[in-house]
Amino acid sequence: MKPVRIIIFTKAAQAGFTKTRLIPALGKQGAANLAKKMLIHTLSQSLEAGVGPVEMCVTPQPTDSIWQEFAVLGDLEYSDQGTGDLGERLSRVTQRVIDRGESLLIIGTDCTQLTATHLQRAKESLDNFDSILIPATDGGYVLFGLNFFHASLFESIKWSTDTVYAETTERLETLGRTIKIFPSMNDIDEPKDLKFLPSTWREADY
To answer: I want to staple 180 with a disulfide (CB 3.0 to 4.6 A). Which of 24, 122, 125, 195 is the partner?
Structure first.
């Protein structure tokens, strides 16, 4: 049984830099405020899950002062996403973690439905499956868990389209790898998705 590491892929919550598709509904600062709230939610659930180290793979680089405020949330590790498209960045961090003898759960910060319990169940499933997927209803994925590395899982994927999940599962099947698929969840990417935010979240906060 390999140790499991949670990798959170995230960008700094800065106005005009993150959640730009929500700007028409929330404005630049409102979109950034929501992005920060979603990041804090993801971090708290990841730490609460207690499945292993929690690493933020970030842009801008970890030495930027914007990341200092999150240290109070718990024991976090940081790494730099680096250059290249999303596939190249995901591929690098996956290979690094697998080569170190760990499995990993890769998540973003776009899904407020993802809880510590989901992360715990995903971790447990990696004992019996090569890969774990939680699909997003928009055709992407909310979580991708792996206990092996293969570059084809990230190469030439049409990122930010409704075919990401289908392309990924097809490649896993081609590799002959076992897959555990959990029920789909909703990402918060566009104004129409705001209805999926928790009912307890107040609009005044973002």
So the answer is: 125
Q: At what angle do helices 23-49 and 116-125 cross, to 10 degrees?
A: 60
Contacts of 26 (CB under 8 A, 6+ apart): 19, 33, 34, 191, 206
Q: How far apart are CA 23 and CA 126, in angstroms?
A: 38
CA 195 to chain centroid: 20
| Identity of residue 177 | R
Model confidence, pTM: 0.95
- Per the structure, how many domains does the chain have? 1
Instruction: Please give the DSSP secondary-structure letter assigned to residue 85.
Output: -
Look at residue 204 and tell me if it is in a domain: no
75 part of a folded domain:
yes
What is the residue range of 40's domain?
4-196
Say what the alpha-carbon torsion angle 83, 88, 126, 196 is, to the nearest 10 degrees: 70
Dist CA 106 CA 143 (whole Å)? 6
pLDDT tens string 142-184: 999 999 999 999 999 999 899 999 999 999 999 999 999 999 9
φ, ψ of residue 54 to 5 degrees: the values are: -115, 120
Tell me whether residue 202 is in a domain: no
Provide the residue count of the chain.
Answer: 206
SS3 content of the chain, % helix, strand, coil (to 5): 40, 20, 40
Give the tokens for residue 25: 């509904």
Q: What is the CATH number of the domain that holds 82?
A: 3.90.550.10
Is residue 26 within 8 A of residue 34, CB to CB? The reply is yes
